[in-house]
């Protein structure tokens, strides 16, 4: 575990973790660099602080973690470990990686041309991809809306697509709907972690498979930045940057959720509205 005491203290107090792995920057016998991140916050300003961890050892270093939720991508082995070690913590799948998984299946089935050129196929796939924006708690949300869509699949490739979604994401014991529903979640991805990892690769000057002494030096320099970043956040000199388009989508999604909660939109209407805001544009 590469972490300073300050980083461990921040992680111990964080209620949400964001987990991702990079497969660069290391040499054998190591197989990946796993990062566990958290947000530090001062008033309305937030900045992610990167931490490297092996979960079991990490938890032994944290006296009384305040953890409530972990957001991560869909690597089965990581989910299995976290469920074993953190049975009372909510695991939430990253909606970006969820959409990516569905898009890969679209490509595998040869549906990407129809997605670009056929309005009906385009709308159908985007509605399926918008399912995470529905609540898994209510009777007329994810499962019933998916079943309704499944019944309207009008071609063999679309039926294969919905069979995949049903098998992997609806009826699955590994990733049932409650593990990827992002209803009323303001942070729905672990993309900030991937952004930090990209920056780490840049600061490594594009090098991969670093010798251990260089990797440790690189991570130590990152650790020293943590205290500086936290202080700058607390002094309102540093804030999390969000693109204008993302802020606009965020506002629209929360407005739609509010209308749904007030009973002004049905689950079906909410799904259609969200499908116009999220998902790949094509190409």
Automatic annotation (TrEMBL):
Q: Which domain of life is it from?
A: Eukaryota
- The name on file for this protein is MULE transposase domain-containing protein
The source organism is Pocillopora meandrina
- List the lineage, top down: Eukaryota, Metazoa, Cnidaria, Anthozoa, Hexacorallia
